[in-house]
Every structure is written in C-alpha cells, then in structure tokens.
C-alpha cells in the first residue's frame, strides 16, 4: 500500500470570507480562492474556512467542501442535526450545484455530458485519476456561455471558453479532471493541465449557484454568487 504524504503548504490568504446569509441553523458563504475548506494536519495549514467560522459560530461544521483554489458558495451547518439533514440532501443528490469556469481553448460543442469514473491515485497524490474499474461513477454537464480570448502578461491572447458546469455527483476534483478529459482543462489548474501559473492568477473555477431545501423551514433556498472572473 502506497503511503500518502501531503507536503502542500498553503500560502497566506488575505481575502475575507463573505457571509451571504445566516440564521440560527446555517450560514451561506462566498469562499475566496486560495483558502482551504478544512485545516490540514500540518500546523502551517491551520487557516481555513472552518477555522475562521468557528470563531464566530462555535458549533459550526462543514457540510461539503470546495477545493483550495475554487471560490464561491458553501453552506455551513450551525449544529450537528442541521449538518445531518443537509448531508442527506447532498448524498441523495437533491442539491443543485452550478459552477462557472474558464476552459483552455474554444470548445466545439455548445453543451455536453462527461461520464467518467474517478479513483484515488495514492502514487500521484493529490491527483485523482480516471478509472472505470476501480473508480466511482462521476457525471458532469457543461454548457458554453461564451468563447473569448484571455490576455496574457506577454501581450498574447489565449483562447478560452466560459462554461457553466453542473456536477451530478460530487467526487474529489471532479470538474477539474472531467474538463481535462474533455480536452479543455480549467485555466489555472496546476494538477490537470490548465496552463502554466503565469497564465492565470488562480484556478478559474467558481461555485456560482447553490440550490437546496432549508432543513427547518422546508423552503427552497436558491443562492447566486457572481463569478469574480
């Protein structure tokens, strides 16, 4: 068995967490890019969404996570019972998550579906891999918003496509590896071929919409958060 060694040290994140909505049961936030969702085992990776929010909401726990480089909407439970109720919605796939991303190159098709199983790959940690034999089923939908050109520091223009991504499943790195499989990795993605770092200041992936049922009121919560890129 391959031992997983995590050597990643997150650089300081000076951006604040934006609280979009809060009540006595849950909090909706806009996570900045470059902030961990949960603190790491390494004490240098203490800063995170959870570490910051627990100072304000002592009993809060994360229901789901966003990758370090991904910005956007997260729902945070303020007690264990709410966490269990929200987690059930996520596991039953009744929560709708919609992302915006900039993909490298111009996509040929205006929309499509990526169906490719994803497996852990301890030998290449933290990368995941596509594997139909050992992987868990994963399915993502994409819709082209616009095809444009992203200016680089050297003055050249990089063709990119702004897309809306809707994952049916919630596998680790799902959208990043599925876009690589599509042949158009997410701009700024260091793990799955999204150009060299100077082409983008961050991972161009943002959780722009989150739709779920409030565990107490049973009302539909429809949250939107505009993309910063």
From TrEMBL:
Residues 25-181 form the Pseudouridine synthase RsuA/RluA-like domain. It comes from the Bacteria. This is RluA family pseudouridine synthase. One of its GO terms (molecular function) is RNA binding. Transmembrane segments: none annotated. It comes from Providencia huaxiensis. InterPro entries: PsdUridine_synth_cat_dom_sf (IPR020103), PsdUridine_synth_RluA-like_CS (IPR006224), PsdUridine_synth_RsuA/RluA (IPR006145), RluA_PseudoU_synthase (IPR050188). It holds the Pfam family PseudoU_synth_2.
């Amino acid at each position: 068995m391959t031992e997983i060694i995590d050597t990643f040290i997150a650089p300081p994140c000076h951006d604040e967490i934006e609280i979009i909505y809060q009540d006595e049961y849950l909090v909706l936030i806009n996570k900045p890019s470059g902030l961990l969702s949960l603190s790491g085992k390494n004490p240098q990776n203490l800063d995170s969404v959870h570490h910051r929010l627990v100072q304000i909401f002592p009993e809060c726990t994360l229901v789901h996570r966003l990758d370090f480089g991904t910005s956007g909407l997260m729902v945070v439970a303020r007690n264990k019972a709410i966490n269990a109720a929200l987690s059930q919605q996520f596991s039953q796939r009744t929560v709708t998550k919609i992302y915006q991303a900039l993909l490298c190159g111009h996509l040929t098709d205006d929309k499509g579906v990526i169906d490719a199983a994803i497996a852990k790959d301890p030998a290449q940690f933290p990368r995941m891999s596509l594997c139909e034999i050992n992987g868990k089923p994963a399915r993502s939908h994409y819709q082209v918003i616009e095809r444009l050109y992203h200016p680089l520091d050297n003055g050249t223009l990089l063709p990119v496509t702004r897309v809306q991504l809707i994952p049916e499943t919630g596998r680790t790195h799902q959208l990043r590896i599925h876009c690589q499989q599509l042949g158009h990795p997410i701009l700024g993605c260091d793990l799955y071929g999204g150009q060299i770092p100077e082409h983008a200041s961050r991972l161009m992936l943002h959780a722009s919409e989150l739709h779920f049922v409030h565990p107490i009121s049973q009302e539909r919560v429809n949250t939107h958060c505009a993309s910063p890129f």
